[in-house]
Every structure is written in C-alpha cells, then in structure tokens.
Design goal:
Helix content is 40%, strand content 22%. It is of the alpha/beta class. The chain folds into three domains: 3-87, Arc Repressor Mutant, subunit A (Orthogonal Bundle), CATH 1.10.10; 90-159 and 257-279, 3-Layer(aba) Sandwich (D-Maltodextrin-Binding Protein, domain 2), CATH 3.40.190; 160-256, D-Maltodextrin-Binding Protein, domain 2. The strands form three sheets. Strands 3, 4, 5, 6, 9, 10 and 11 form a seven-stranded mixed beta sheet that branches. A hairpin with a 6-residue loop joins strand 1 (48-49) and strand 2. Helix 1 (3-15) packs across helix 3 (29-43), helix 2 crosses helix 3 (29-43) and helix 5 (101-114) packs across helix 9. The mean pLDDT is 85. This is LysR family transcriptional regulator. Pfam families: HTH_1, LysR_substrate.
Length: 290
C-alpha cells in the first residue's frame, strides 16, 4: 500500500466522484482509477460500487475510510515530529541511579550554556538496564561505571570515587578519620538496591552483620535517610551533602570509575558536542578524595 493510494481514496470519498477527485489531485482519471484498483488488489476487497455516477462506498470501503484517515494523520504527525526533531536536536542520556542528580544537573547546565538548542531526555536505570537500552538504541549515551566494561574504545572516563561509609553528622562515628568494617556490626544500615557491588556487599555481611532497616532505590533517598540519623550506608564519596559525613573504610579499599559510554559508529553531531563539553567540565566541586 502506497501513500498516494490513500490520498486517491480519501479524495474520492470527500468529493463523491472519481472525476472531481482527479481534478483536485491534478492527475488524470485513468491514473486515479488505476491507483484505486491497485489498492483494492492489495487489500483484497472492493472499496467502491461500480456503475453509478457517484462514488458509493461498499461496507469494506466505509470501514477502510476510517482506517485510511488514521493512517494518513499518523503519517503527517510523524513528519511533523521529524521536522521538529531536525530543528531541535535531541540527546538521550541514560544515567545510573547511583549517580548523584546534582552531578548530572551541573554537567547538563554547562552543556546547555554551550548548546542551548539541544533537548535532553534523561533516563535512569541499573547497570544492566542502561547497557540494554544503549545496545537497542534507546539512549545515545550512558553515564555508568566503567569498571569491567567491555567497550573501552567507546567510553570516556569522567572521575573516580572511593566507596566509603556515610553517617549522620551527629553519629558517634562522624568524628573518626577512618572506620573498620567491624564498626558496622549491629548498626542500623541502609541498603542501596542498585549498588553496582550489591552482591559483593552481601558477601561482606556474612560475618559482620549490620541491622538492615531500610532499602532505597536512589542515592538522594539514601542521603536523606542517613542525614536524618536513621542508619549508615556504604556508598560513593561525594562533597557538600548536607547532614552527611563520609568516612574511609580502612579494610575495604573499594573505588569506582565513572564515565560515559556510547555505541561505536553512532556518534551523532549532538553526541560529539556533548563529549567535547564533558572533556572540559570541572568536577571538583561535586566529589573529592581525602
């Protein structure tokens, strides 16, 4: 089925005759009739009753009239969306749920100062979810951990973070320079459900048993729970988190490398612009290492 056939069909139903439809569309009547015949062959139905002076729809024609309008409207709407997309480029950016939103917002702010016409669509997910979305082309870039990632040639390292203990500023451990894993024994603990080392954390707690009191899906939730004094958590080290102190764990020297990953061969102009911006971005005010 071709679009011109839909236009022929709808013009006939609107004008009531083949000749008037041909005049409206600036085509010959034989060409119009041939187009309708091909359409009927494709659909394997008869759309118009033959022999009368007016074009009268068959029952199948009446049903198809409604469907044809929907098909043509959807086609025209798609064209409009594509034109808008061309006029306003879109960057689809995926991010781990364990990335602090302030970190991402600061980067986006810098980028939009340089490329104000770009529309940014944000998607969050787990490590595996973002990998699938990138592979399927649902996102253009993902901010994720690079440790163990299999595509180093299509990645850009942004920063490294230690995994440390987060406690409330009022907690007895808050004044310590370092802690030991044993210090977590029987302490109220907040699990980060999307931690990239979640299974590894589970193994650590076979001998040291903190008291799991909350499980949280996003970093911002963990911050709030910790700041309220409701529990401790092992998480990446950030700066300027109100009410939270981050303390290195002497016998758990873990860290993560955070970066951007994209698909090889799919570097659009807007992706290239974003990568250029990221290469000059200052991350110093968002995280630190002692």
């Amino acid at each position: 089925m071709d679009l011109y056939q839909l236009r022929y069909f709808l013009a006939i139903t609107e004008t009531g005759s083949f000749s008037k439809a041909a005049e409206r569309l600036f085509v010959s009547q034989p060409s119009l009739s041939a187009g309708i015949k091909k359409l009927e062959q494709v659909l394997d139905v008869t759309l118009f009753e033959r022999g009368g002076r007016r074009a009268v729809l068959t029952p199948a024609g009446k049903l198809f009239q409604k469907k044809a309008k929907i098909l043509l409207d959807n086609y025209q709407a798609t064209l409009r969306e594509l034109r808008e997309l061309k006029q306003q480029p879109v960057l689809r950016l995926g991010t781990l749920r364990t990335i602090r939103i302030a970190c991402l917002a600061d980067l986006i702010h810098t980028f939009q100062q340089q490329s104000p016409s770009v529309l940014i669509e944000l998607v969050d997910g787990s490590f595996s979810e973002l990998g699938d979305q990138l592979e399927q082309g649902d996102v253009d870039l993902v901010m994720t951990v690079l440790d163990g990632y299999e595509a180093p040639k299509t990645s850009l390292t942004l920063f490294q973070q230690r995994r440390v203990l987060a406690v409330s500023t009022n907690h007895p451990l808050a004044s310590r320079e370092t802690v030991q894993l044993a210090d977590l024994h029987r302490q109220p603990f907040i699990e980060r459900l999307h931690c990239e080392r979640y299974r590894e954390m589970q193994k650590l707690f076979t001998s040291i048993r903190p008291q799991i009191v909350y499980r949280a899906d996003h970093e911002e939730w963990v911050f709030s729970l910790v700041a309220a004094g409701l529990g401790l958590s092992i998480m990446p080290e950030w700066s300027n988190v109100p009410g939270v102190v981050f303390i290195p764990i002497a016998d758990l020297p873990l860290q993560r490398t955070v970066g951007l990953v994209w698909r090889r061969g799919y570097e659009s102009e807007v992706v290239t612009q974003f990568l250029t911006c990221v290469g000059t971005h200052d991350w110093g005010n968002l995280f630190f290492s002692r």
